[in-house]
Amino acid sequence: MSNSVNFIAVDIGAASGRVMLGRWDGARFALEELHRFGNGPVEQGGHLHWDALRLLAEIYTGLAAYTARHTEPLAGIGIDTWAVDYGLLDAEGHLLGYPYHYRDRRTRGVPALVDAIMSPERLYAITGIQRLPFNTIYQLASALGDPQLHEAATLLLMPDLLTYWLTGRMVAEYTNATTTQLLDAQTRTWSDELIAALGIPAHILPPLVEPGTILGNLVPTVRDTAGLCADVPVIATASHDTASAVAAVPGLDASSAYISSGTWSLVGVELSAPILSADAQRLSVTNEGGVGGTIRFLKNVGGLWLLQECQRQWEREGHTYSWPDLVALAEAAAPLRSLVDPDAPEFLSPDDMPTAIRAYCQSTNQPVPVDVGALVRCCLESLALKYRWVVEALELLTGRQITMIRVVGGGSQNDLLCQFTADACGRRVVAGPVEATALGNILVQAIATGHLSDIAAGRRVVAESFPQTVYVPRISGDWDAAIIGFEALVAVTDRH
Fold first, then answer.
1. For position 496, what pLDDT does the model report?
2. Which of 8, 168, 313, 376 has a Cα-to-Cα distance from 21 of 20 to 30 A?
3. Measured distance CA(410)–CA(83) in Å, rounded
4. Catalytically annotated residue among 160, 184, 241, 341
5. CA-to-CA dists, residue 361 to 297, 388, 490, angstroms
6. Dihedrals φ, ψ of 76, to 5°?
7. Residues with Cβ within 8 Å of residue 95, at least 6 apart in sequence
């Protein structure tokens, strides 16, 4: 692949990050992991924060790994991360403090305060965004009395902050900016009405740019630190990690739903325009920006967070289980005995996830899952049923018939969850690629630099470059019976 074109995708999630090399040979993509690192909250002063400067250092390490292994010039660098969190900078461009983590307690009770200023109905009519307590709008509302906010000259979302340190450009990339719940879904601009109503200082919001905007070259200090011998363009890719993942979903069409499966599961369809109806608001479906002028009409679901937190708790107790161990224990457990709504507030940030799940089951008059296998099965079956609930809601709201579910991301490797999803939803599941987020990041860069024509072409290339696995539903009436009780659990969550 000596004649390949090389791109670097920096893909940082809430639990880990990677610096990935994407090589395009004119027909297929190949990926190489240059650097992997952990990520997570840092507790300071009773609050949860992100160590943004350490993330920058990890990017430097990844770039240095490239120069140590490869001599070819880079065609582009793009950064994607999780959504909603931000850093504040002063007039000289210096970071004013550690960015807050979205699971920090400071937004507790804030959505109700915002409701008193602007009705949820009006807020949704403007933004089309799902009401989640950690959205940027609620983080900012909680900080209105904070001196840091009043001193700030610019707010940059996490991928934009890292991109600024690489280029000196301060912008807000559109796909991630939509998640702030501060954009007008129809005009695709910051909402003056909303910003004025809440008293948010409008001057801190940077100019919006579309995914695929070339922002400029790496600043010389970064280029030289990484050992790069030529200028490298930095591209505002689809900087929300889910937007990048959806960009790389093979075969995505009007009869398909996607699940970007990881710590969070993002379950949705791709539209050409937002749906801002009262029913969409009632079902808490969100309209986030996608590439090529599309809308990611989706619902955020609590994802593998449930199981990840169970594993952490078991490790704290001195018990380490491999994934094959957990699968074997789950398969041996009785099916569909105990269910939880993954989005119940009890599971947002518990100190002990297994205890939280048991308490939830007890309070909802279900058998309490005592052993590890029962807990794992409870988590996976509950996720599969939540996926069904969301897919049926999407059919109702869009008028589409969804016949296929396409799963990408780390969760696409979870055979048991994928099979449960096919069984619960009664639809074929196509799983893969695992590295959809990095691929989507690279696809947007390749389009921006003229190496690909559009996302449709990129999706075809992804399908030809990486394997996918098909799961056929096993017909069982047990799932149809389970969905009835599960819908009652969701209704309780929605009342909160």
1. 64
2. 168
3. 18
4. 241
5. 31, 20, 13
6. 175, 160
7. 52, 53, 87, 88, 89, 161
CA-atom Rg of the chain in angstroms: 22
Q: What is the DSSP string of 343-373?
A: TSGGGSS-S-HHHHHHHHHHHTT-----SHH
Comparing CA positions, the residue from 191, 209, 188, 210 lying closest to residue 274 is 188
- Separation in Å, CA 251 to CA 91, 150, 245, 256, 376: 46, 47, 13, 8, 31
For 5-241, CATH gives: 3.30.420.40
CA pair distance 194, 183, nearest whole angstrom: 9
Q: How confident is the model at residue 84 (pLDDT cuts 50, 70, 90)?
A: very high
Q: Which of these, 250, 249, 298, lies nearest to 271 by C-alpha position?
A: 298
- Average model confidence (pLDDT) for the chain? 96
- Chain segment 13-43, per-residue pLDDT in tens: 988 999 999 999 999 999 999 999 999 999 9
Entry pTM: 0.93
Would you list the DSSP string of 465-488? Answer: HS--EEE-----HHHHHHHHHHHH
Superfamily in which the 249-432+466-496 domain is placed by CATH: ATPase, nucleotide binding domain (3.30.420.40)
> Are the beta carbons of 151 and 204 closer than 8 angstroms?
no
Cβ neighbours of residue 220 closer than 8 Å, sequence gap 6 or more: none
What CA–CA distances, in Å, run from 302 to 66, 341, 386, 405? Answer: 35, 9, 9, 18
Strand partners, 94: none
From residue 112, alpha-carbon distances to 119, 164, 476, 488 in Å are 10, 34, 42, 24
Amino acid letter for position 424: A
Structure-block tokens of residue 253: 């069409």
Q: Reply yes or no on whether 85 is catalytic.
A: no
